[in-house]
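Worked example

This section walks through a single chain of length 171. The input is the sequence exactly as stored; nothing has been trimmed or padded.
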Amino acid sequence: YRSVQVPMMFKSDKVNSTYDENLRCNVIKLPYKGKAYMLIVIPEKGEDYLFFFFLFLNRNMDISFPKFKLEQKYKMKKLLYALGIKNLFARTADLSHLTDQKHITVSQVVQKAVIEVDEKGTEAAAATGSEIIAFSAPPVIKVDRPFLFMIFEETLKTLLFIGRVVDPTEM
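Given that input, the structure is written out below as tokens.
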């Protein structure tokens, strides 16, 4: 990977983290308001794409990683068809409860997902970051190479977002 200059953010906080010797990576768990959190997977230099589950240790640390924003549009028609939702796209679909217009049809459903991470936290469809003040001088983790991020909701044990940041300047 090539090196690029990007705006960085810094937060000193008490967070859950672990180092996996087998996979050779650091993982930190950043809490959000409610029951959501972000996992950041930082492989050692030279390592590549990782995805796994493991135990965390709660410890103080300083975290530095790039600000980033991802936007993606998804055409949902094929997926909805596969889920059995076909009548919505038919010319005979009854959409009278949505509009007063006659003779209209749905040609496509588009979903836009946006996630932005900066010092204030994360803005996404179902997650907002929280701010906590650190109490001591912790170890430093600097995310200066490609990394994975995942946003989970704990109550439903649901993965809300997953992504890989390789070059934040190309987002």
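What to look for: Residues 77-82 form the longest helix (6 residues).
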